[in-house]
Design goal:
Layout: H1 10-14, E1 25-26, E2 33-36, H2 43-47, E3 55-59, H3 61-76, E4 83-86, H4 93-104, E5 112-117, H5 119-132, E6 136-140, E7 152-156, E8 162-167, E9 174-178, H6 179-184, H7 187-209, E10 220-221, H8 223-249, H9 254-274, H10 278-286, H11 290-295, H12 298-312, H13 316-329, H14 346-358, H15 371-392, H16 395-401
Parallel strand pairs: 1-10, 2-9, 3-4, 3-5, 5-6, 6-9
Antiparallel strand pairs: 7-8
Helix pairs in contact: 4-5, 7-8, 7-9, 7-12, 8-9, 10-12, 10-14, 12-13, 12-15, 13-15, 14-15
Bound molecules: zinc ion.
């Protein structure tokens, strides 16, 4: 039952072995997406279109405590009894194998896996569902990344260090976002998601403009993915501040709904079908430094990665504009806001940027990316970010961490 062959969409979508000059354009997305307040109450109704009547629910102990009654009562209202499998905290191969074996041992013909939680639980859930060869249903409880809609997972070591990714032939069968859960979650998650969402637009643009640029799936990006990525960042710029305020009040309002959609759906399609490049390559570099990895969220590191990308691309005006927005919303704009320091962390940070320069993600940049120009771009971004924070203030950054 366990899948043994690693799946990659790249050779399929790129047609690279056929000798074609240019891959076709292509786009993938979740099969269904639904978002609104208190939707978790109605999960059973939406399962009918998967279709699923024998689901397993994959959720952390804290998630079960907070959302278990609402979720399981909602399913029971549709005569669905779900089996609960606890997510033990890390999206690692050992956790994925454990949960898969545990569910297989029950000898129940599950017809979907419902993953409920944050990015790591959702990513682990996609891996477990793939091994069980059943559809995955994704219910994010925070809007901190664009992981929910994609057909790939980032897998970590048991110590929390990125080990690699897994891609799946199927995108999630259903993504159900209960916006009331997002409104009740800490604001820092929503804001981190905005960092990830902003980067989507600039990374997709670079991949689109560069004839050698590729979407994550291996195709050339569609103009649909371009439009989605552009709308994604525009929504965050227009509604981000109001959405964060609604989140502080714990209330769903139209601005918050739009930003949740930008962080989750638009950024999800935008990155997977639009392409990923320097901002994420630099963010991956930051994860090599324990102080950054252990204290900051993915989207927070991506925000400074984005400023570095814009400096690398010599888009100085945009770098200044994005840095000002990041300061206003509370995203890190400079190294000290990731607890990093060029003096104290110099050699480690330089080595991290050298590793970033070498990742395949940089192949989407239309010029030579080197350890030297990446390092210079980081220093320039840091300077622009410090100036932006000096002008705007760091109240938003401090308020979220108070
Ligand atoms: Zn990301």
């Amino acid at each position: 039952m366990t899948r043994t062959v690693d799946f990659s969409p790249k050779p399929i979508f790129s047609l690279e072995d056929t000798g074609r000059q240019m891959p076709p354009v292509g786009l993938i997305s979740p099969a269904r997406y639904v978002q609104g307040p208190d939707l978790l109450d109605h999960l059973g109704r939406f399962l009918s279109i998967v279709p699923s009547t024998r689901p397993a629910v994959y959720i952390s102990p804290g998630g079960l405590r907070r959302h278990g009654d609402q979720l399981l009562d909602g399913l029971r209202a549709m005569q669905i009894e779900a089996v609960v499998e606890i997510f033990e905290g890390e999206c690692s191969f050992s956790e994925i194998e454990r949960a898969t074996a545990s569910l297989q041992a029950q000898n129940i013909p599950f017809d979907s896996l419902i993953a409920v939680g944050g990015g790591k639980c959702l990513d682990a859930g996609k891996c477990v569902a793939d091994r069980l060869e059943i559809p995955v249903v994704i219910c994010p409880t925070i809007a901190s990344t664009d992981a929910p809609c994609s057909a790939l997972s980032v897998v970590y070591s048991d110590e929390g260090i990125v080990q690699g990714g897994e891609s799946f032939p199927d995108s999630p069968a259903l993504v159900l976002v209960d916006s009331q859960l997002i409104a009740a979650a800490p604001v820092r998650y929503l804001v981190a998601g905005m960092g990830d969402a902003l980067a989507t637009r600039y990374e997709a643009r670079t991949c689109y403009r560069n004839p050698a640029g590729r979407a994550v799936i291996g195709s050339r990006p569609t103009i649909a993915a371009q439009a989605i990525a552009k709308l994604c960042a525009q929504t965050v710029f227009d509604d981000g501040i109001a959405a964060a305020e609604a989140n502080y009040r714990g209330e769903v309002d139209p601005a918050l709904e739009r930003v949740i959609e930008a962080n989750t759906l638009l950024s999800g399609i935008g990155f997977e079908s639009g392409g990923v490049t320097a901002a994420h390559a630099v963010a991956m570099g930051f994860t090599r430094l324990p102080v950054a990895r252990e204290n900051y969220l993915h989207g927070e590191m991506v925000a400074l990665g984005l400023l570095t990308q814009l400096a690398l691309e010599q888009s100085t005006d945009e770098c200044v504009q994005v840095a000002r927005f990041c300061a206003e919303i509370g995203l890190p704009t400079h190294l000290a806001q990731l607890s990093l320091d060029t003096a104290a962390d110099g050699p480690a940070l330089k080595a991290a940027m050298a590793a970033s320069a070498e990742t395949p993600l940089m192949d989407n940049v239309p010029f030579d990316v080197t350890p030297e120009n990446t390092w210079a771009a980081l220093l320039q971004a840091d300077e622009i970010g410090r100036a932006a924070t000096a002008a705007v203030g760091d109240q938003a950054y401090r308020r979220m961490r108070a």
